[in-house]
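Internal tracking record. Fields below are filled automatically when a chain is submitted to the structure queue. Please do not edit lines marked as system-generated. If the sequence contains nonstandard residues, flag them in the REMARKS field before resubmitting.
Queue: standard
Priority: normal
Entity type: single polypeptide chain
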Amino acid sequence: MNAFGGFDFAVLVLYIAAVTAWGAWLGRANRGGADYFLGSRNLPWWAVMLSVVATETSTLTFLSIPGISYLGALAFLQLALGYLVGRIVVARILLPAYYRGELSTAYALLGTRFGSVARRYASGVFMLTRLLADSVRLFATAIPLALITGWSYPISILVIGAATLIYTYYGGIRAVVWVDAVQMALYVGGGVIALLLLQGAVEGGWGTILGQASSAGKLAVIDLSASPAVAYTLWAGLVGGGFLSMASHGTDQLIVQRLLTCRDLRHSQRALIGSGVAVIVQFALFLFVGLGLWVFFEGRDFASSDEIFARFIIDEMPAGLRGLLIAGVFAAAMSSLSSSINSLASASAYDFWAPLTGRRDDRSAMIAGRFFTLLWAALLIVGAIVFIPLSRGTAAVEVALAAASMAYGGLLGAFALGVFTRRVTQTGAVVGMTLGVGTVIAIWATAREAVAWPWFVLIGLAVTVAAGSVFRRRD
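SYSTEM-GENERATED OUTPUT FOLLOWS
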């Protein structure tokens, strides 16, 4: 068993220091809110595409996805197919609506259609959802840091959060997007390196790995089960995954903010659809890493499925390379965390602070945004620490996706009411969102064994639209 030595620490510290300094430097030209939160709307589509992928997958892909195939099969890929379908729908329907006006957040569209109450209500739902989901993501990243340093989880979480906060605070969205692009290349490269190392670590290489996985039924991708209790089926993937992607990429400020930094609608559509293809490839890469780890570790049990790949990196990789792979874990974490902090700050500044204070000038928006950057970073760190005792035996990626799915149906339903109807009132939008989100939370609390989380968005959407449609203006 190898120890995480001085050379590895040097690689890791150098990486964190370089990324933090570069990200802060990228923000040198920020003069106001449009620069800080929207990158002056002139970022290249391919960089935005990489940022979208890095933001939505992050450490949960790097650590949790291998654990899913280690314990199961390749059925998770069915969800990725639905992700692509959902992105195509958003690119065709919602993105044109965003680009028809000069919108600063995803929820400004609801404000234009319904009013300020609906805008702030939807923004508040986004904030709570993002806080829950990304606190889990931050905790997942603390696992390898705690393993290699011997630090406690709270200390590890604080170190990651502080490093990310620095460049997010100074650099704004421009730093977030460009650093994301570089960090995605690093952690995907880490997955490729793991595949190559497993070739040599297992006698017979990938021929043996695939043979044993096939015999155990772990190469199965398609599951035609019609049971709503099974999370990874073709129907749950295409329908549930499709609606989840429509909600996350069409109504979540975390993603929409990136898409609004593109030069125009066509570039934004390229970034969005291209990210769907990239996610399928990325998921496949890390699922195959999990199959290799299953053969390498001979199916042994771990306290948490998120620990499996981290343990392989720390115990089995050579010095230097081990540091680079752990840097990949940090790259994934920092990309997601920085995106979350910046999007939460932008929603706070534009959806709440500016309309409530009446201070709408660009300079004031940036100053307020930096204050909210500090606030949300602190809340995410606290949330990650709170999750520690709840984590045992749970894949963080599934917890984060389930938490997000509880709110996404209500948000998507509100946008559907706003885009496809003209007579539903603001009261209908708010009541619909409340009942949609509340219904899904009730299902999760009382019947989660009977209804798997990929169906949450569709259920929430249906309830929101049905309830909201009752409240119509009289002509």
